[in-house]
Amino acid sequence: MINLKESLRRDGFILSSLVGKDFKLKYRRSILGVLWSVLNPLLMMIVISAVFSFMFQRNIENFPLYLILGQTVFNFMSTSTSTGLMSIIDAAPLIKKIRVNKTLFPLEKVAFEVVNFAISLVAVALVMVWFRVVPTVHLLFLPLLILYLLLFCAGLSLLLSALAVFFRDVIHLWSVVVLAWMYATPIFYPFDMLPEIMQVIMKFNPMYHYVTFFREIALWHEVPSLLHNLICLGCGVIMFALGLFAFRKLQKKFILYV
User: Fold this and answer.
1) What total of structural domains would you count in the chain?
2) Is the pTM of the predicted complex or chain greater than 0.70?
3) What value does the CA radius of gyration of the chain take, rounded to a whole number of Å?
4) Residue 67 belongs to what domain range?
């Protein structure tokens, strides 16, 4: 028990130190600094709204808010997994020198994006104020959404980071996969416009469920159903278990390939 507590304390310290280091590096020599985490989703929302609003605004009420809610959730996944993908390769000099819990590196990238996600919620709040969408008690479900996303992205980052050590092609392929995944998720278009067969297939897209969850609590003022919660949790738990299993299976050989 004492060794377990010491190990957890050490891993917690390393994790928080890595998050702090990434936070400082990201905004180093930036005039606006952390404000970019608010400005980026706002600017992207404005650009995409300008392009697609004439197509979907009649079908979607408060289209810019609908858009930024989807963007914020999807960007959390895409950024955390894209940085998590490189985490073991980037940490190669440290891994070769000292013995450290290697799972901390991909998990730290996801934890860092949780911080960015929290900051980007300021942009969501500003859009809600602009369109006079009053926050309701349904937003109390937001921590659950963050937990579901955290599990899903952590598992995916663990899996990708392990595969990238042995197959560097994964690094190049993932950017294509993320782009295709974004268009396959109803971020800037309504779910109802899809053909019936595509709507059925969409139900197997985890990001569709996470994006819809956020819109339910922030835009539509609905309580996510028990089934929807179980689907979001199930996707997260399955992906985390799969990623952790693959990572632990492969990590002994990392030192030979990084």
Assistant:
1) 1
2) yes
3) 19
4) 2-257
